[in-house]
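ok so I'm stuck.
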Amino acid sequence: MSENRFKIVFEGALLPGVDVTTAKLNLAELFKSDVAAIERLFSGQKVALKRDLSQADAQVYLQALTKTGIDARIEAEPSIELNLSDVHEHAPANDQPVTADPDSPYAPPRASVGEKMPEFSTLKAFSFVGRIGRLRFLAWTMALTLVTLGIGAVLAVFGFALISTDSTAGLILAGLLAVILVVVLAFISIQFSVQRLHDIGWSGWLWLLNLVPIVGSVFPFVIMIVPGNNTANRYGAPPPPNSNAVRVLASLWLVFIAIMFVGGLTGGLTAIKDEYESATDSTYQSSAVITDEVDVAPADEAEPAPNSSDDAAEAAEPAVDSATE
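replied:
not stuck anymore, here's the structure
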């Protein structure tokens, strides 16, 4: 008697807590295929992923598939025993159609492979999986910036209140909250950038280029400028069309940049004006001091006053007339 053979079947079910997009990406990596081909396996019908396996090989395949997040299982292959006498006795008539046993490994596949891939992907703001376009990337970043400014203002007011009360414990708590806020917002910002890279068709690990000197100052603009793929790529279907809210939030960047430019220009002009006035006042004060020094005569150049009555008498004696003498 021949050894029993087994097959791995899958009906589209996933393990608890596994996202369908993650499972598709994992299967695509396992089978060295693209996501579009893997989509056909999630039709909801029974699909044999691997046939004619020994029990040990079937267990190995099942463990590998379980790591991808899908709920596959092992089923026994139907045993086939041929008997020539039975074939001759039960041979079908020529006018009867021959139908294959549906459980036979040689039967044609019955799984539907024509299921269309979703036209648009599902948006997931707080995830490293998915795709977002340039305009949505700007909109989500603006929303994150507004939230950051709002929370930062609240923390600033809270911090000033603690400073006025001279509470050391309160200041430490406010500092810890500020650090946690910065870490959380930075993490969310990285998620946005990774999804933008996926839309271009690049790996999310390229975000690390932001940490490279010089390159990191240019790469964010590359993410914002390079267009994404119009069709599905290995990271899923294209993102849905932009809504009016996305357009409004993205356009706020123009207002934000204009305000920053005007504020910076005004501050620069004010600083230049203050510096000019300070220099003018300093020059005026220096000129006044020099003028005072010129007007005051030195003490050694003044005419000495008479020291005694004799000196005064000598000064008052008339001149001697030589003719009288």
